What we know:
Distance between the termini: 33 Å
Strand order of the largest sheet: 3-2-1-6-4-7-5
Structural class: alpha/beta
Order of helices and strands: HEHEHHEHEEEEH
Oligomer: single chain
Amino acid sequence: MVHKLKLEELNRIDVETFKTTEKIPLVVVLDNIRSMHNVGATFRTADAFLVQKIILCGITPQPPHREIHKAALGATESVDWSHEADINTAIQHLKQQDFEIIGIEQTSNSQMITDFTINPLKKYAVILGNEVEGISDEALENIDSFIEIPQLGTKHSLNVSVCGGIVMWEFAKALK
């Protein structure tokens, strides 16, 4: 008979074990995200896929905050994160560490994520932009490549945390 698994049947690791578990070579950069729920959901997804780190840039809210915690469900304690006031400073630090910088944005030279080849020997940083304005204009020239998610309906964008979840899953499949 089929039954839903209880929490103790899921065999999840604790925060201390998570901290020492090998992560995928992926950093998620949140550029001027307004919604604390989007920040929390991004942390929760980053935990699920063993993302190396989240960098919160500009006005992006930072933990600890009750509204972030409601969506993160404790992932702000497991996932490493930092804050950088300026997106370009964050990008430069990542480039110095040999990360390829990928903007998740609809641009004149973006390619569909389904056509983007993720090299398991590389390190990647993906940038998710503001819910209305997208990635900061001043950062566009410092980004190596742009990818977008195919959309078949009438809407021209996805919620930023949903977009982040799709992107993190695609990179986790290729990098794990």
